[in-house]
Specification:
By secondary structure, this protein is of the alpha/beta class. The protein folds into 2 domains: 323 residues, Alkaline Phosphatase, subunit A (3-Layer(aba) Sandwich); 94 residues, Alkaline phosphatase, crown domain (Non-ribosomal Peptide Synthetase Peptidyl Carrier Protein, Chain A, Orthogonal Bundle). 43% of the residues lie in helices and 13% in strands. The chain contains 23 helices and 16 strands. The strands form 4 sheets. The chain has a 10-stranded mixed beta sheet, sandwiched between helices. The chain is globular, with a radius of gyration of 26 Å. The N and C termini lie far apart (55 Å).
């Protein structure tokens, strides 16, 4: 036996050598045919649709899947768009970190997803050395393909900006708007007209304001954040763009399209769920913008690249608002279903769906709070005993209650904060929360939230909670850095036991994110491994450049 093993190893190596140096004609032919088939399959990639769920970690996808399968009154089928995508496609994992830190922000993440270059946090379209990147949108545009960007946040927000703008900081949204205008994209659809209209629009009765009121009859807020009087809308029209500011003008738009549908972010997921079937609705949904973009871009015989961002998953995570996050995932699911429907029967399109990072450290968890009552089971093992769980593992009915929330937390507190000072009482907060959520609070809890909020202090550029209140509300207060989102997070903490869930932060985590892909031939193969965000655009470019 001892002599047999070396002999077998030698024979194996010898065989490999022989195959490498002296393949038979048939073997060579087989290899060539296989390579030809793979090249042919890859060469069919005419279009790429790249969908990004901002803040959509595995936990957020899990929330959608739990709702579809376990909510007693789920409004969507048990199998979600993600189920169909995995069943017909592939799945992998991507690491979102930057070159020098553990946790990434949306601007750096979008830059890495767009360019394949390592970036620095809060930079957009800039690499870690401070140089402008070249993005996949720019590369395929220069190859004669159509390109487009869609987001339900602002067109100048971090994720879209990473694909079409180059600025040293994501806050430079006025400059990013100019970069967007000069990107020569065929479709640009989102919110945030405030960075596109002249500053004189802020003057009541000014010619600029009157002209914009006529141009945007459904606009609830015509206000500019520009520091100059450049009217980028008129400049866009001069460049050949059709302008759209509501559903009707979007549907009527032809050729290149610039659509801006809100002052800042577009309708949140709860509002979209409540209004999407309203015939009087004027703001398009993420799904409608995506379908319009695909229909427009697909007219280019050379193909297209489209990036679609479902961006408010992240906003819900920052607020620690689980109900809002569920509705954002439902929005993402509906949009993804529309893309998959368009792809049916096609063998020329690669779809990749991922996230820039996870937000909130969200998750359902079991606890010792409100233990379920013992109950009788029919099985023989319990004929002489009751089933007595030691912990509360969470009631699926919680999912229905999340769906039934009427307003996002920030809107609830906006109503509260608009009350006269004398009316801003714990009782008033109880009434607002209990009217708009299915997880009621009492006066003691409301007082606890408001007392903690009043003890916020400003230090080193961020708001934090006073040391005296940390132990009363929870730990990790250093990770709640956005002052105007504190109220919602405090409400989330107070009701965490009733909801059976936990949040670890008000910011981003380093959690690896999922990568879903669907496409012909071997086009999805690179996305089935553990990769880094900078790998994704390189694989997309390779697939498209083989066309």
């Amino acid at each position: 036996m001892r002599g047999l093993i070396p002999f077998l190893l030698f024979s194996f190596v010898l065989g490999l050598s022989a195959c490498t140096s002296q393949q038979t004609t048939q073997q060579v032919k087989t290899v060539q045919q296989k390579q030809s088939s793979q090249t042919e399959n890859i060469s069919k990639i005419k279009n790429v649709i790249f969908m990004i769920g901002d803040g959509m970690g595995p936990q957020q996808v899990g929330l959608l899947l739990s709702y579809a399968r376990q909510a007693p009154n789920a409004v969507i089928p048990r199998l979600t768009a993600f189920d169909h995508l995995v069943n017909d496609g592939r799945i992998g994992v991507s690491l979102p970190y930057t070159h020098d830190v553990l946790v990434i922000d949306s601007a750096a993440s979008a830059t890495q997803l767009a360019s394949g270059s390592s970036s620095g946090n809060e930079m957009t379209g800039v690499d870690s050395d401070g140089n402008k990147t070249r993005t996949i949108l720019e590369i395929v545009r220069d190859q004669g393909k159509a390109v487009g960007l869609v987001s339900d946040t602002r067109l100048t927000h971090a994720t879209p900006a990473g694909f079409a703008a180059h600025q040293r900081h994501r806050s430079m949204e006025n400059e990013i708007a100019i970069d967007m205008l000069n990107s020569d994209s065929d479709v640009l659809l989102s919110g945030g007209w405030r960075h596109w209209i002249p500053k004189n629009a802020n003057i009541a009765g000014s010619p600029e304001q009157l002209a914009l009121q006529k141009l945007m009859p459904h606009a609830k807020k015509i206000k500019s954040k520009r520091k100059d009087n450049r009217n980028l809308l008129l400049e866009a029209r001069a460049k050949g763009y059709s302008l759209a500011f509501d559903r009707d003008t979007l549907n009527q738009a032809t050729g290149k399209v610039l659509g801006l549908f809100s002052y800042s972010g577009m309708a949140n997921g709860i509002i979209e769920t409540k209004t999407k079937n309203d015939p009087n609705r004027t703001m398009p949904t993420l799904k409608e913008m995506t379908v319009k973009s695909i229909d427009t871009l697909a007219k280019n015989p050379n193909g297209f690249f489209l990036m679609v961002e479902s961006g408010q998953i992240d906003w819900a995570g920052h607020q620690n608002d689980a109900a809002w996050m569920l509705h954002e995932m439902l929005k993402m699911n509906e949009t993804l279903n529309a893309v998959l429907e368009w792809m049916k029967g096609r063998d020329d399109t690669l779809l990749v769906v991922t996230a820039d990072h996870e937000t909130g450290g969200f998750g359902f968890s079991y606890s010792g709070f409100n233990l379920p009552k013992p109950k009788k089971l029919s099985g023989e093992m319990f004929k002489d005993a009751l089933f007595r769980p030691n912990y509360n593992f969470g009631d699926p009915a919680i999912l229905d209650k999340l769906y039934q929330q009427k307003l996002v937390y920030s809107a609830i507190f906006k109503k509260y904060n608009k009350l006269a000072e004398a009316e801003r009482t714990p009782r008033a907060l109880v009434e607002l929360v209990n009217k708009n959520t299915e997880f009621p609070i009492n006066k003691t809890e409301a007082k606890r939230i408001l007392e903690t909020e009043s003890n916020l202090y400003y230090e080193d550029g961020h708001y934090s909670l006073g040391k005296k209140t940390v132990s009363r509300i929870g730990a990790n207060d250093a990770y709640y850095v956005y002052a105007k989102r504190h109220q919602g997070a405090l409400l989330a903490r107070v009701k965490a036991n009733d909801m059976g869930l936990t949040w670890s932060t008000g910011t981003h985590t380093s959690t690896p994110v999922l990568v879903f892909s669907k496409g012909p031939g071997t086009s999805t193969e690179p996305f089935t491994k553990i990769i880094h965000h900078t790998d994704i655009p390189k694989y997309l470019e390779k697939a498209m450049m083989n066309n």
